Amino acid sequence: MFAPVSIKLTTNGRPLTLHLFSTGKIAGRLSSRWQPIWVLAIDHPEGIFLVDAGERTRRAHWWLDVLYKFDLDRSDEADRQLANFNIGTHQVKTILLTHRHFDHTDGLCHFPQTPVFHPSPKTLNDSCGAFTKAHYVTAAKDLIVVSTPGHTRDHCSVLLRTDNHHVLFAGDMAETQEQLLQGNHPTYSAVKAYAHSHPLIFLPTHDPASGTRLATLQALNPDNFDTGFR
User: Which of 36, 25, 35, 23 is nearest to 82 (CA)?
Assistant: First the structure.
C-alpha cells in the first residue's frame, strides 16, 4: 500500500540516492485509516544517514497494542528494507531522530553500534534560513537538523539541500501536508517561509502522499499559502 521510493539526485554536483520506505502501517485501535511509518535513508557522498528507525514487530511496550493496531511483518523492518537497497546496517553512519516516540525509535534495535543524533534545541547553535535553530551534519552543509517544535518540545526535522530540490523529512511536525498548509503554528510558518525561497519537498512520517511527492519531486507551491512569518 505504501510502496518504497528511490530517487537519484545530486549535491554539489555529486550523486546521492534517497530511499523512502514505510516500516509497516499504524492506525488508532478504533480507526480504519491506516498510516505509513516512513523512514528515509540518504546515501550521501559523506556516508549513509538514516532518518528515524521506524517500527518493529516485537514492540517495546505491551500497551501499544491496546492503543494502536499495526500491520507489519519482519520484512517491513528497517534492516530488511535496507538490505533490499544493498545497504547493510553496519554501513549506516548516523541515525538522525526527529523525536523519541516509539514508532520512530523501536527499529533502533537493529543498529546497536550506530551513533544516534537527536539534539536538544539548546544545542542547535546554527541557523538555516527561516529555521533559527539548526545543526549542520555534513561538512558540505547540505544535510541539516533543524528545530521544529510542536509535536514535542525537542522535535526536529531533517533538511537535505540538493542541487535542484530541498527535501524536508518532517517527522510528526504535521500529520499531512494539508495540515501544514492550513495551520498557523510558528513552526509551520517557518517551513512555509523557507519554501518561498527554495523548492521544498515536504515529507511527514505519517502522510500517505509523502512517497508520491518524493517520487515526482513535487515541491510546496508558495502560491498556495501566506507564510505568516514575521
Answer: 23
Q: How far is 176 from 61, CA to CA, in rounded Å?
A: 27
Assess contact for 37 and 55: CB atoms under 8 A. Answer: yes
Query: Is the pTM value of this prediction over 0.90?
Result: yes
**Cell numbers at 124, concatenated:** 542547535
Query: For residue 103, which of 184, 22, 9 has the smallest C-alpha distance?
Result: 22
Neighbours of 153 (CB within 10 A): 10
User: pLDDT digit string (tens) for 6-15?
Assistant: 999 999 999 9
Q: What is the pLDDT of residue 120?
A: 86
Please choose, from the candidates 32, 35, 67, the residue with its C-alpha nearest in 3D space to the C-alpha of residue 54. 35
SS3 at position 67? helix
DSSP 71-134: E--GGGSHHHHHHHTT--GGGEEEEEPS---HHHHGGGGG-TTS-EE---GGG--EEETTEEEE
User: Quick one: how far is CA 2 from the chain centroid?
Assistant: 15
Return d(Cα 125, Cα 132) in angstroms, integer: 9
Phi, psi torsion values for 139, nearest 5 degrees: -65, -30
